Structures are given as structure tokens and as C-alpha cells.
Amino acid sequence: MRYSRQRALITHILKGRCDHPTADMIYESARELEPNISLGTVYRNLKLLADEGVIITLETEDKRLHYDGDVSRHSHFICNECGKIVDLFKPSKTPNEIEELGLTVTGEKCVYYGLCSSCGAK
Amino acid sequence: MRYSRQRALITHILKGRCDHPTADMIYESARELEPNISLGTVYRNLKLLADEGVIITLETEDKRLHYDGDVSRHSHFICNECGKIVDLFKPSKTPNEIEELGLTVTGEKCVYYGLCSSCGAK
DNA sequence: ATAATAACAGTAATCATTACTGATAACGAT
DNA sequence: ATCGTTATCAGTAATGATTACTGTTATTAT
After folding, report:
1. Contact criterion met (CB below 8 Å) for A37 and A44
2. By C-alpha distance, which of B51, B54, B59, B62 is closest to B12?
3. What does DSSP say about strands A56-59 and A65-68: parallel, antiparallel, or unpaired?
4. Cβ contacts (< 8 Å) between B111 and chain A: which residues?
5. Cα distance from B64 to chain A (closest Cα, Å)?
């Protein structure tokens, strides 16, 4: 993977903020420093960076992919009302521990990734 | 919410299978018994049923929403290779316990839902 | 420096999902 | 039981996030 100013910028932006922006939000930020950057370039590099494990993706119910520059093991809380995404460090926080942060938990979705038995055998 | 034959069929199909079909797959199944059912009807009812809590949605990396008729608390395993979705009962299975099912776990994404402190105050 | 090609900007295409329209069916009130 | 209201329908068009394409530019190994 060659160096590119655009990819470095996208990485820098994402690592320097603690929210979970969409591609479009990152595009807006990037244009402040690189006015001619293309939205396609943002999408392409976000996908590359996610494939490389440099950043993380977050599928939400708003149908848009959110990106997270923090690749340490942690989970997320999403407000059903305003859609705000909150980082929950310590991955195995129990619902009770989460409530202590002022959050009301009504549900959870936990997905594990990896290889199933048939794909792992190959 | 009024009764409709189409909605009853969609519910029946989803409750009667243990995979995690997309709207399109449910549409195919539904057309076997209700050949004139519309794809829009399938989408509309799946959304209604999910809002009512009768079924559950699952956002995956294939960009399509998957539906689950099992609303009991459980988590999922998705194979990175073939995309197969496996139910993991007992929601708090540890990675080690999952490995015993023949699955190789390389990552997890855990999201909690509810109300944040500002939205909860209202 | 040059050649090979990854990456770019700009834009068109894709495709899952949602919205719209006129027709039909469920169901409470008469 | 029929009527009127309106939720729901079938069919189809529109939406919008993401991806693919095209000709150009920039990176890097030789």
C-alpha cells in the first residue's frame, strides 16, 4: 500500500477524534485541509483502512456505516432517541455497570466474527 | 394494527425457520404461498414487526438487514468467509466457550441500546 | 530520471430500502 | 349484515449510501 496524502489525512482525522463519524462527516472534515478531496477517495480509503485493521466499522440502524479510530477492544452504546454513540471501555461491562454511566439500557446486540467449522477446516 | 394475511404469513415464515434471512429471502418464501405478495409489503411488515418487538434485526457487513424470529436474548456468530450466521444461546458466552462449538473467533462487536442521560431525563 | 502502477478527482452506476398511488380489505359503528 | 373509515395492499418510482469506472496524477522501485 503506497503512501498518499489523502489517506494519511483520513487516518489522522479519525484517530484525532473520539466520536464515530460517517464517511460523509469525515469527508467534510477532510475538505477543510484538502478542499479537492473526493468523496470516493474517502470511501475507498476508509474501506482499505478497515480491511487493514487500522480502523473499525460500526453498523448502526441509521443505515450508514460509522467509523472508529480506536481499535482497542471496547463496546458501544447507541441512544434510541438521538442516535448518539458512546464508547464503553472494558468490553465486558454488564448492563448494571452501564446504567451507572447515566445510560438506560433496553437491549443489546452482540456479534462474534471468525471462521465457522467448515471454513476453518480449509 | 389490523390483521392482514400477508403480515401473518411473514411472521409465520420467520418464526418457523432458524436461519437469519434477508427481506429478499423472506419475499421468495412468501411467494410460494402468496404469489402476488409485493416486495414492498414484505419490507413494510418486517419494519412494523421489528418496531413492535415481534422480530429482531441484525445489521451485518453484507449491507443487507437480516431478520430473526427468535426474540429471546442470544448473540450471533458470523463467519468471515462464507457469511453464515450461527445462533449463540446463553448471551454471555465467552470466546472460549464459543471455540468449543468449532468456531474460530477473531473479533466481536457488542452494542447496547437504550436512552442516554440527556434523552432519558425528558 | 523513468517506467510501472497505486491512488486520485470527478462522475456514473448499483442496489437495498423507502415512499408514493390508486385499489382492496379489515373492522367498529350504525 | 351493510357502510364508512382507513390500514394495508400490489405495483412501481424515488432515495441515498456505497461502489465502480475513466482518464489523470503521484509514489516508489529500478
Report:
1. no
2. B54
3. antiparallel
4. 58, 60, 75-78, 108-110
5. 9
Closest chain A residue to B111, measured at CA: A76
Q: What does pTM read for this prediction?
A: 0.92
Interface-testing mutation among A115, A117, A118, A122, with chain B (most B C-beta atoms within 10 A): A115
Is A84 in contact with B116 (Cβ distance < 8 A)? yes
Alpha-carbon span B106 to B68, nearest angstrom: 23
pLDDT of B96 reads: 74
**Do β-strands B104-115 and A104-115 pair in parallel, antiparallel, or remain unpaired?**
antiparallel
Instruction: Give the nearest partner residue to B111 out of A73, A84, A109, using CB atoms.
Output: A109
Return all residues near B111 (Cβ < 8 A) that are at least 6 apart. A58, A60, A75, A76, A77, A78, A108, A109, A110
For B38-49, the pLDDT digits (tens) are: 999 999 999 999
Whether the predicted pLDDT of A121 surpasses 90 = no
Provide the β-strand partners of residue B67: B57
> What is the tens place of the pLDDT at every residue in B104-116?
999 999 999 999 9
